[in-house]
Amino acid sequence: MRVLLVEDDRQTAKFIVKGLQQEGFAVDHAAYGLAGRGLPAGGDDYLVKPFAFIQ
Predict the structure, then answer these.
(1) Which domain holds residue 23?
(2) For the chain, how many structural domains are there in total?
């Protein structure tokens, strides 16, 4: 499954991307919302902080 992560904090994004990849996800990262608009999308599920990878 592919995930689009929009996160402006570099360290937080790095942590989340690494965790998602370890769980088997392919991750596209954008530093802010407008940059994310150009990346592949298609789902309607959203995950907002705070969260646990188990979710």
Answers:
(1) 1-55
(2) 1
